[in-house]
Amino acid sequence: xxxxxxxxxxxxxxxxxxxxxxxxxxxxxxxxxxxxxxxxxxxxxxxxxxxxxxxxxxxxxxxxxxxxxxxxxxxxxxxxxxxxxxxxxxxxxxxxxxxxxxxxxxxxxxxxxxxxxxxxxxxxxxxxxxxxxxxxxxxxxxxxxxxxxxxxxxxxxxxxxxxxxxxxxxxxxxxxxxxxxxxxxx
Length: 186
Known about the structure:
Blueprint (H helix, E strand, L loop, with lengths): L1 H7 L2 E12 L21 H15 L2 H14 L4 E8 L7 E8 L13 E7 L4 E8 L6 E9 H10 L2 E5 L8 E9 L4
Antiparallel strand pairs: 1-4, 1-8, 2-3, 2-5, 5-6, 7-8
Helix pairs in contact: 1-4, 2-3
């Protein structure tokens, strides 16, 4: 009943991307960053062999293990991108930059960091979330997903964060996004 009433009205809201879950590797199995191509992702055995080789090279096994641990962390994506709120009915889209969160498969943003403010949420509205893995030479697409007005209205009705599974829209790379939809000032 509450959702039906929410759909019938136009609401002025702030929409924040609060979190995302990114797959541990790209759809082709390659790591987001670090050794790619012929090397492929580092397996547990590969990490152990590399740690042993580095340790013997520098004469300290702990250093080899530490270097491999750092390299493993650096293989995680550096997620950044853009939110675009589409009002529909000829109204201009509203966009916000999603700032970079480095070396994590679970980036988190606070309200105001990745937020479109004061937008008119109605039945024809949608939110497009486009994330990339920021790299030195060329960025790798993580995924672009679209959340419907129904999903945005559910988030508003919850008065809290709503997590939406999105792997089916993003080649399995962007597993989910979490959004917060609130009336301004809340």
